[in-house]
Design brief:
Number of helices: 11
Number of strands: 9
Mean pLDDT: 85
Order of helices and strands: HHHEEHHHHEHHHEEEEEHE
Structural class: alpha+beta
Oligomer: single chain
Helix content: 25-40%
Strand content: 15-25%
Distance between the termini: 53 Å
Low-confidence stretches: 163-170
Length: 271
């Protein structure tokens, strides 16, 4: 004789089979993690490097968050989102407008909500909601330690004044930082770059505190000097560069003019 038991998932309007299937896809191909139209780029980068260190842990987080609504790490850190998120339906326009897969919304939005002083609730219907989802460098560095398990994570923030007036202080200094982070990447570090979406499109523009975007650096750095040669020692003659990144659910190669890089490079995290 068998008995039937009702299993109540905390995110009850999200299908558990779909969550598990999507999570397994990301374990194999972490680039599938996609913030889509949300402001959760930092959380996407965080999970990307988490999977590279511990695939099983990411899978446990995704499944347990869906089932119980929280996830407690062995170090005591807990992901516990705004309780209003548990009632989200995938048919609601606020959710649908972000174009996010179910597992990405649960894991990324829950992770950011746990660190939000502005009561981020996983939806972004205006400027205040988007501000609540911004991934500040100090916060993300701490989560690289607590969530992703990179205990020696460090931040390298270029302050607003230095970044905004690089042309007057020597624009090659930011390129020196790029060479520095590339060397750390080659030594085995995970690198998260803090920038502006304009960097992806090779556009000019100076630091905007309301427009922060995080990408994962993937190497392949090439620096081109004013004679068209690949030149990696002295940055003052560099006019363009290329390297690979992960962002928005894919990896891609960027080709960037040096001024556009300098004006949109805000710093990086090494994990």
């Amino acid at each position: 004789m068998s008995k039937k038991y009702f299993v109540h998932n905390r995110f009850r309007y999200f299908d558990s089979n779909k969550i598990l299937s999507q999570a397994k896809q990301r374990v194999v191909n972490p680039w599938k993690i996609d913030q889509a139209r949300s402001s959760l780029c930092g959380m996407a980068c965080l999970c990307y490097i988490l999977i590279q260190r511990d695939k099983t842990l990411y899978l446990k987080i995704a499944v347990e968050l869906h089932r119980t609504g929280t996830y407690k790490f062995s170090n005591g850190y807990t992901i516990g989102p705004n309780s209003s998120m548990y009632d989200m339906r995938i048919t609601e326009s606020d959710y649908a407008n972000m174009k996010m897969d179910e597992v990405d919304w649960i894991v990324l939005a829950s992770s950011r909500s746990s660190e939000s002083n502005l009561k981020y609730d996983g939806i972004e219907t205006g400027t205040f909601d988007q501000l609540g989802a911004v991934n500040w460098m100090s916060m993300l560095t701490g989560m690289c330690r607590e969530v992703a398990g990179y205990s020696n994570s460090k931040s390298h923030d270029l302050d607003l004044l230095k970044s905004g007036f690089t042309l007057y202080t020597g624009m090659h200094s930011n390129i020196e930082k790029l060479i520095e982070l590339d060397q750390k990447y080659k030594a085995g570090k995970k690198i998260l770059i803090m920038t502006d979406p304009k960097l992806i499109y090779d556009e000019q523009g100076w630091r905007n505190p309301t427009s922060i975007h995080w990408v994962v650096y993937k190497g392949g750095l090439s620096l081109i000097d004013n004679k068209g040669k690949n030149f990696t020692n002295t940055p003052k003659n560099i006019i363009s560069m290329s390297f690979e990144i992960y962002t928005w659910g894919k990896t891609q190669k960027l080709n960037i003019e040096s001024l556009n890089f300098v004006s949109n490079f805000y710093g990086y995290i090494e994990a």
